[in-house]
């Protein structure tokens, strides 16, 4: 592999791992209280896949960082300003429709990115993506089906899905922003330029939303700041408080 | 101690049940990629089914326990992600054991071929997810029984 800027690689791996970590935590909040048993199980399983992917991404990040940390240290001992996930995954679950719309937005992006990362010049990135691609393919099948089922459902479910779409869409654009770190990663052949995925993503969204009888907002304004760590939403701190308190209160505790 | 042959080790591994689906063994599942001696150390290479499979660490522990009980003290368990595990690696024997246990085995077409209880092909999917990440929930429209389907990945 070419001599790649390790800082940029670390940043890239944190972005990948933090996205799946935070979304996994959010999705797991439904465990035990989803509307029907099948959905409860499906969400818990999705969260499990995402936490598995997190272990792989953050495990590699910890190695690249080279400070003797583990994936667990990165997940449980960093503060909000060190997280590099997109803002979308921090947003509250809202109702079931909002949760599934967020999941679809993420799965759609992931399902386009993973097969490309499977050809990464970095063999570790490639093997993690190859593994994740299989899981993502059935995540997106389910979340797309559910968005269509609820969007093209009852008057009430349609109304809620349109509200979820209107609320969440301004967070989608952050997936496709890039900075100097992305340029270095792209130049080294590790990952595609984030912006290069947008056309395929838009196309996919349009097809699913048409089937779901939902109207995509025209405004392309996007909130950002998560993947650069510049500014997270107020929600991330609350997630971390819940996720990290045990390890912070009882350092090194295991069971 | 005389070093056991790799064939012998495979036989021992074939006796270890999958922790989540005890009807089939680890070798039936196709997750053991390689067994090899490197000097006096036995290396067993394992591919996880799903990245978040909670059974992964338990599987490693069971391999270690079983092989130690057979007198192997220098053991190296390696994780191999690529090529990613596919249900194609499941053995024919494993597929039959699954079906006899009431779990429809994976099919290339992406859905179960028949109800494991009454063999009807009048089936419907309830959810892409079942009791574990590797399974989906289906139902037979004839005998009306829900059943697990081992997803094809």
TrEMBL record, chain A:
UniProt superkingdom: Bacteria
Gene3D superfamilies: 1.20.1260.10
GO cellular component: cytosol
Gene Ontology MF terms in the entry: monooxygenase activity
The UniProt record lists the keyword ATP-binding: no
Keywords: Monooxygenase, Oxidoreductase
Entry-linked Pfam families: PaaA_PaaC
Gene Ontology BP terms: phenylacetate catabolic process
Signal peptide boundaries: none
Identification of the protein by name: 1,2-phenylacetyl-CoA monooxygenase, subunit C
Source species: Roseovarius indicus
High-level lineage: Bacteria, Pseudomonadati, Pseudomonadota, Alphaproteobacteria, Rhodobacterales
């Amino acid at each position: 592999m070419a001599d790649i800027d390790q800082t940029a690689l670390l940043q890239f791996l944190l972005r990948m791992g933090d996205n799946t970590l935070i979304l996994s935590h959010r999705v797991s909040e439904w465990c035990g209280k989803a509307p029907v048993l099948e959905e409860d199980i499906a969400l818990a399983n999705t969260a499990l896949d995402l936490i598995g992917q997190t272990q792989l991404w953050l495990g590699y990040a910890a190695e690249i960082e080279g400070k003797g940390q583990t994936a667990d240290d990165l997940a449980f001992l960093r503060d909000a300003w060190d997280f590099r996930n997109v803002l979308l995954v921090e947003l509250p679950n809202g109702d079931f429709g909002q949760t599934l719309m967020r999941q679809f937005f993420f799965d759609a992006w992931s399902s386009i990115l993973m097969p490309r990362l499977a050809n990464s010049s970095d063999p570790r990135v490639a093997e993690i993506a190859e593994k994740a691609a299989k899981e993502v393919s059935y995540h997106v099948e389910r979340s797309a089906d559910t968005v269509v089922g609820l969007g093209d459902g009852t008057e009430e479910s349609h109304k809620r899905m349109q509200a979820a779409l209107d609320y969440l869409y301004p967070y989608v654009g952050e997936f496709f922003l890039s900075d100097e770190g992305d340029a270095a990663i792209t130049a080294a052949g590790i990952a595609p330029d984030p912006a290069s995925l947008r056309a395929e993503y838009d196309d996919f969204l349009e097809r699913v939303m048409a089937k779901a009888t939902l109207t995509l907002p025209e405004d392309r304004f996007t909130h950002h700041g998560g993947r650069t760590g510049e500014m997270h939403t107020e929600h991330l701190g609350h997630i971390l408080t819940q996720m990290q308190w045990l390890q912070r209160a009882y350092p090194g505790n295991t069971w | 101690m005389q070093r056991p042959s790799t064939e012998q080790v495979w036989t021992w591994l074939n006796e270890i049940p999958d922790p989540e689906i005890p009807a089939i063994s680890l070798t039936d599942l196709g997750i053991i990629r390689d067994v090899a001696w490197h000097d006096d150390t036995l290396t067993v290479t394992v591919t996880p089914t799903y990245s978040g499979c909670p059974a992964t660490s338990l599987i490693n522990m069971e391999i270690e326990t079983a092989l130690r009980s057979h007198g192997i003290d220098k053991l190296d368990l390696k994780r191999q992600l690529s090529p990613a595990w596919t249900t194609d690696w499941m053995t024919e024997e494993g597929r039959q054991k699954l079906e006899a246990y009431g779990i429809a085995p994976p099919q290339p077409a992406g859905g179960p071929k028949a109800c494991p209880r009454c063999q009807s092909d009048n089936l419907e999917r309830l959810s892409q997810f079942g009791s574990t990440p590797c399974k989906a929930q289906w139902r037979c429209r004839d005998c009306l029984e829900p059943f697990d389907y081992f997803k094809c990945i």
